[in-house]
Design a protein that fits this description.
Chain lengths: 376, 140
């Protein structure tokens, strides 16, 4: 049985959400129309309930050493009150266990945001690592303590002004604050971040406080948006999802380099992290597959490229789709795919086979939506 | 009363009483000249959520009952459309190619998909009655 999001009753009774399962959680899939909700986030402001995201507190004198060991990024330059940017936890085959974001409260206190399906796996893994390596850390699961929302879209600053939290607009991208008050409600954490490619904030608060904030946001004209639009938005941006773009099984997923994650997620100057030997070996040998974006021609119509569909150049299979959607914003199909590096040339056209028919698509870099705003 | 509202797991679905149904959530409405107009039910469109595209069969095609005659693409899934009866496709709703959202907005009306000229009119009688379809939905 799926776990209900902490705000379940609110979504059902007040917002009339349609629910579905994601990562072991029952979450609001959509409120009115996923396509409309997608466009709201691209053009106005929407609020997602993302309380299913795993949130873990790491505390203790060995936390700095622990995170350098577990992740591919170096955290030495991260300042207090800032997020690390996304990074990867690898297994020994250099495949990705999870892509996560870390928040530095102090040297000895960090927060980790894990993907919903991997929360339990990662907590178990953290405990195993701590035991095996003798790291002194305390691991606390905050997932059931705080609800989490993401307010996203080009009009979020206006919305924050309207709810009396204009001060939050001074936060820089990836900066966060803890123990603040918004709309008269106690907030554990607010950060300038999100997963849509738009400007936005993520807020953690206890459920009763979060409902007050939700009410205020809705009054301010922010629209509730669901998990389906969150998925189509991330496909356009080239953000990755577990079991689609990455996974731990080396017979199903290429190594972490192929993910072409960017954003400094892998630091090659760093030594001594899990999966490092395999990762360096792949780097030296060269990788076979690389993740790219695909933009279908408009004349392909309203097809939806799904995971596993094959990609062709003439009669040669050169790759496969990992995620796809019909983009209501670009009015065409878009996808993420792994392509044989010899064929992975931006601007080149390949063919995707959908139910026996071939559709042309251009290989492009992410994001597939142009000119997303960069916040300060 | 021309429709029944059925509640399944706290969600409401409409079943029209002027037509028959399949277990695969298509409706079929008998028209003059042994023709059947076919579409998907309110339950089907709500399960699929936002429908973004459709592949239609060609007019003139002979189809067998239960055969896949089209594909519906939604943000959530790809679903087959099955022929409710055997016969010849005599009309398709080409409007859906440009406005697939009609399948969500008006599944029993403007969102009709095909018209089949039946080769065996007895097959229509074998389809689920509205009451039987309601019972079928309740099993979900």
């Amino acid at each position: 049985m799926a776990i209900k999001t902490l705000l379940y009753d609110y979504h059902l009774e007040k917002l009339g959400a349609s629910f579905g399962e994601f990562g072991g959680w029952e979450v609001p899939m959509l409120y009115t129309s996923a396509l409309e909700e997608h466009n709201i986030v691209r053009t106005s402001a929407g609020v997602f309930d993302v309380s299913h995201m795993g949130r873990i507190r790491l505390k203790g004198s060995d936390v700095p050493e622990f995170i350098e060991y577990v992740y591919t990024k170096s955290f030495k330059k991260i300042k207090e009150g800032w997020m690390s940017g996304p990074t990867l936890a690898l297994n020994h085959w250099a495949r990705v266990k999870d892509d996560e974001m870390l928040y530095k409260i102090s040297d000895e206190e960090w927060l980790v945001v894990a993907n919903a399906p991997y929360r339990e796996k990662m907590i178990k893994y953290f405990k195993e690592v701590a035991k095996e390596k003798g790291f002194k850390i305390k691991i606390e699961d905050l997932t059931f303590k705080y609800a989490m929302i993401a307010v996203q879209g080009p009009k979020v600053e206006e919305a924050m002004e309207k709810i009396g939290a204009g001060w939050a607009n001074d936060l820089h991208t990836l900066e966060f604050r803890t123990d603040v008050e918004i709309a008269g409600a106690k907030v554990f954490l607010i950060s300038r971040s999100g997963w849509t490619g738009e400007d936005g904030f993520e807020i953690w608060a206890e459920p009763s406080a979060m409902i007050k904030i939700y009410d205020k946001l809705l009054e301010a004209g922010v629209k509730p948006v669901g998990i389906i639009s969150r998925d189509t938005l991330r496909v356009e941006m080239g953000y990755v999802l577990g079991e689609h773009e990455y996974g731990e099984d080396p017979t199903k997923f290429p190594c972490a380099i192929s993910l072409r994650y960017g954003l400094g997620a892998i630091d090659w100057n760093k030594k001594g992290f899990v999966g490092e030997e395999a990762l360096r070996a792949y780097r030296r040998e060269g990788v076979r597959w690389v993740r790219v974006g695909l933009r279908f021609k408009k004349k392909a119509g309203r097809v939806v490229p799904r995971q596993g569909y094959k990609i062709f150049v003439d009669d040669v299979v050169v790759g496969w789709i990992t995620s796809g959607s019909y983009s209501p914003y670009l009015k065409r199909a878009v996808a993420q795919a792994y392509i044989d590096t010899r064929y992975a040339i931006f601007g080149e056209v390949v063919e995707v086979e959908i139910r026996g028919k071939r559709y042309e698509a251009k290989i492009e870099d992410f994001p597939l939506v142009p000119g997303r705003p960069v916040v300060k | 009363m021309s429709e029944i509202t059925v509640e399944v797991k706290a969600k409401k679905y409409i079943v029209k009483t002027d037509r028959r149904y399949t277990k695969t959530d298509e409706w079929a409405k008998l028209e003059e000249g042994n023709k059947v107009r076919e579409g998907i039910t309110d339950f089907a469109q709500k399960e699929l959520k936002d429908i973004v595209g459709i592949e239609l069969p060609e007019v003139g095609k002979e189809v067998k009952k239960g055969e896949s005659i089209g594909v519906i693409e939604s943000v959530k899934a790809t679903a087959d459309l099955y022929a409710a009866v055997s016969g010849k496709i005599v009309e398709v709703n080409e409007r859906l190619l440009e406005e697939p959202e009609l399948l969500n907005k008006d599944p029993y009306g403007e969102g009709w998909i095909v018209v089949i000229e039946m080769s065996d009119p007895k097959e229509y009688e074998e389809l689920l009655t509205p009451e039987q379809y309601v019972e079928h939905l309740k099993k979900h």
